[in-house]
Write a structure and sequence with these properties.
mainly beta; 8-stranded antiparallel β-sheet
Length: 296
């Protein structure tokens, strides 16, 4: 085991916790805890003037990795992304009609403005009690942050994704030709008609950039427990209760993959890890538990 100083960073964050009791009566109560967190880190320096630093264990698939560059987030994703002109338009190869990737020109991984760090997260814990009955549940909310859906890229490149069903439909990729005029006032608009089923590299050379989903949000019911306190000395115990607990029963999200809570590697990986890199990951399982709790 060894440690390596890969970069100098600047981190900033803010955490806010609010506790409240909206209802407080002898037989009815409601306690609530809200936790709001926002944080982020920026790379301020890389050693020896290198253009990029990355953790090799997070280079899990294709040509995207958790690379970091000076001035950018430590949760960035670098890759062989599509080249664009000074107006942000895709550069198209005049010979093929396909977009040009950065590896075809420089061979360097570049930053495309992607950041896996969420804008903020919120946890809302609630406890409601009515006589002997209680209800506890925790809501998990996330706003923002990008996810690389490598699983979908893998399926698309092999013609196994639903996104390839229109492979016989002609199309023109929106962009401008890289003919020397791409950065002029009047770049040449691409008009080359493509038919994916007739162009063998249409899917296989498709940049992973198209499968980085931006600004992923979710609302998740982390857990919920219904508990009933049994009366008297049930089972000769000082206290006893029966409970039913559910975990990850539902999630509402704009992510198209199986589950936005993913990590392509283990927590043992250093640096910013592989959080937000989804390659063959299983979703969080739903769980239901029933039990009896007793104190003697």
């Amino acid at each position: 085991m060894f440690n390596l100083n890969g970069a100098a960073t600047r981190s900033r964050g803010l955490e806010l916790t609010v506790r409240s009791t909206p209802i407080s009566r002898p037989t009815l109560s409601w306690d609530m805890v809200l936790n709001w967190t926002s944080s982020g880190s920026i790379v301020t320096h890389l050693p020896n003037g290198i253009p990029e630093s990355y953790v090799s264990d997070t280079w899990l698939y294709g040509n995207v990795r958790n690379g970091t560059q000076v001035g950018l987030s430590t949760m960035s994703l670098t890759g062989f992304y599509y080249l664009r002109n000074n107006r942000g338009q895709l550069l198209i190869d005049p010979a093929t009609g396909l977009p040009i990737r950065s590896n075809a020109v420089s061979g360097l991984f570049i930053d495309g403005g992607y950041d896996r760090q969420p804008d903020f997260t919120i946890g809302i814990g609630n406890t409601l009690r009515y006589k002997r009955l209680s209800l506890d549940f925790l809501l998990d909310i996330r706003k923002g942050g990008d996810i690389f859906n490598a699983t979908e890229h893998y399926l698309t490149a092999r013609g196994l994704s639903m996104e390839t069903l229109d492979r016989d439909q002609p199309r023109v990729i929106d962009g401008v030709l890289r003919d020397g005029r791409e950065n002029s006032a009047n770049p040449t608009v691409n008009t080359i008609v493509m038919v994916p089923s007739a162009q063998t590299t249409y899917y296989t050379n498709m940049s992973e950039e198209l499968f980085i989903e931006k600004d992923i949000n979710w609302l998740r019911l982390r857990d919920i427990t219904v508990r009933y306190e049994l009366p008297g000395r049930f089972l000769k115990a000082r206290s006893a209760s029966v409970y039913l607990t559910g975990t990850d029963l539902f999630v509402i999200t704009n992510y198209t993959g199986l589950d936005p809570i993913i990590n392509g590697n283990t927590a043992a990986v250093g640096g910013s890890g592989a959080v937000g890199i989804d390659f063959g990951n299983f979703p969080m399982p739903r769980g239901v538990n029933f039990g009896i709790s007793a104190g003697f």
